[in-house]
Amino acid sequence: MRFSVLDVIDIFIVAYVLYKLMNVIRGTRATTLIKGLAVIFVANVVARALAFQTVSWLLEKVITAIFVALPVVFYPELRRALEQIGRGQLFAKFTPSPKDEAEHLINTVVQTALSLSSRRIGALIVIERETGLQEYIETGIALDALLSEELLTNIFEPNTSLHDGAVIIRDDRIQAAACFFPLTESYVDSQLGTRHRAALGLSEQTDALVVVVSEETGAISLAVSGQLRRYLTESRLTEQLQAYLTKHEQPFLFRRVK
């Protein structure tokens, strides 16, 4: 069997596509699910090698059921991958936001979160990245206003029409307020309220950054890729937002909230 240049190109293309797909699911719950699938496949191979007929039969049925359920289980990840392909972003490198614009956005969000946290005013602030959030913007009240700490703070003042729901920021503008998101279906701590569940739900389906301020405790959290980091200080929140918005890096390994 001859190994030609075309074979090398073929292997390179497949490897590159797999690499990009792994980047799409990295840091999401799909990573854990893939590990579980790997364990089942390895167990099936071992059972066949040891001639465990009953175990092999059972694992084969499980694998068949898994393949049928995969589109449902991996729906958020599949949707994100298809969206990136449609925008031509799957094979493109992320372009960081202009430095001045990103610093203004980060500083405004951080200072607003600190101000609201000190007064224990609940808030849900969403920063759009590559995945468009227009369908969620349309659930709220359109603003298309220049981003400022004063405006962002006033939106979440209690007993106002825009207090409930979330604010969505695109570039350096507040696109809408009082927006609503699907709640996560994953298990989370029973102490977490609707805001945190909505933040996780949106981060599971998009690549948005979601800053949450707890009304009960004033704690600041950040939801990304279906993961939640809680009790962030000013410096930690700033570091996380800078890493995601200006470098497109994952600054630390998120841990699943239980």
Identify the notable features of this structure and list them briefly.
9 helices; 2 domains; 7-stranded mixed beta sheet; alpha+beta; 51% helix; YojJ-like (1; 258 residues
Written account of the structure:
By secondary structure, the chain is α+β, with helices and mostly antiparallel strands. The chain folds into 2 domains: about 5-85, no CATH class; about 100-245, 3-Layer(aba) Sandwich (YojJ-like (1). Helix content is about 50%, strand content about 15%. It contains 9 helices and 7 strands. The protein has a 7-stranded mixed sheet, sandwiched between helices. It starts with a helix and ends in an 11-residue tail after the last helix.
Task: Compute the separation of the termini in Å.
Answer: 53 Å
**Main sheet attributes: strand count, strand direction, barrel closure:** 7 strands, mixed
Please tally the β strands and state the result: 7
CA radius of gyration is: 21 Å
SSE succession: HHHHHEHEHEEHEEEH
Strand-helix topology:
Layout: H1 5-25, H2 29-49, H3 53-73, H4 75-86, H5 99-118, E1 123-127, H6 134-137, E2 141-146, H7 149-155, E3 166-170, E4 173-179, H8 194-205, E5 209-213, E6 220-224, E7 227-229, H9 234-247
Parallel strand pairs: 1-3
Antiparallel strand pairs: 1-5, 2-4, 3-4, 5-6, 6-7
Brief overview:
The protein is of the alpha+beta class and 258 residues long. Helix content is 51%, strand content 14%.
